[in-house]
Input
Amino acid sequence: MPTQDRRTQRERREHAEAALISAAAELVVDTGVRSLTLARVGEKAGYSRGIVSHHFGSKQGLLDALARALQSGFVPGLDEQPPGLERLLALVGGYLRALGSRSVTGRAFLLLWAESMTSAELKPAFRDRDVGFRHDIAAEVAAGIADGAVRADADPADVAVAVVGQLRGIGMQYLLDPDAVDLDRLGDEVTDHWRRALAPDEPSAP
Output
């Protein structure tokens, strides 16, 4: 039936795109960002270069899709929690633990993010993703202020910049020297830090 055919075609497209994104991430980790080409991605995924062009249009389109995919669903389970401090803390701890899993996804993201500092191809996608990341963190802080879990004088935008800077900085240290950075332990340490830093002041004793 036509409806079934359309569904099958969509599923094939989604499967191909996922395979190509996975191949691109593996190539970034194995050989570096600069060696990434549509032909090499297609070959690694078992497709032709033309298929890669069909799905992403260009190397820039592939890089944009890769940037989105690497940061989407990085910390599972967040949508099940209400907005506010606890969800922010789950994000912070979960982010570091996800990086510590030594997965291809985590390493590829860090490599691409570092490369985006000097790459005209990568900078727009990663800048936009960081804007979105800071916006999401600021929203959690604002929700925490509204429900009383976060001190009223905390500035959501400033906290967001500090959190992203801390997470990215730890990630870069891990990329340079994985054995020196225990991300599982740091997940707990950084979570505790932000819980204390954002907690409302205790009322003074009479």
Remarks:
- Residues 65 and 80 are 25 Å apart (CA to CA).
- The chain has a mean pLDDT of 88.
- The chain has two domains: 2-70, 73-198.
- The two ends are 77 Å apart (CA to CA).
